Amino acid sequence: MRCYAKIWEDNEEGHFNVEFPDIPFCVTYGHTFEEEFVYAEDALTGVILTMQDIGDPILEAKVYEGEQYHVIAVNYDIQWDLNPPQEID
């Protein structure tokens, strides 16, 4: 899945903020421009997997233009088993 992220530098805090206009509540930040891409992929993957798990529709992303918008791509078809095995006493 490809999604557009809005990235901007917060001059007061000294880090880069990231939000996804098409994915509500998916936000993160990084201390460098390069770092925020890693965190953006991680945040987007987590939100997409959660939406998939609870049955929320995952809509195709709109195209945004402007220097603040960057494409973040993730593979959300991965089915992870997030439940660790239970110990038997």
Question: Could you provide a short overview of the structure?
Answer:
With 89 residues, the protein is an alpha+beta fold.
Describe the structure.
This protein has a single domain, classed as Double Stranded RNA Binding Domain (2-Layer Sandwich), CATH 3.30.160. The protein has one helix spanning 33-54; strands spanning 2-10, 15-19, 27-30, 69-73. The longest helix has 22 residues, at 33-54. It is globular. With 89 residues, the chain is of the alpha+beta class. Strands 3-2-1-4 form a 4-stranded antiparallel sheet, with helices on one face.
How is this fold's topology laid out?
Elements: E1 2-10, E2 15-19, E3 27-30, H1 33-54, E4 69-73
Antiparallel strand pairs: 1-2, 1-4, 2-3
Core attributes:
single chain; 89 residues; alpha+beta; Double Stranded RNA Binding Domain; 4-stranded antiparallel β-sheet; 1 helix; 4 strands; globular
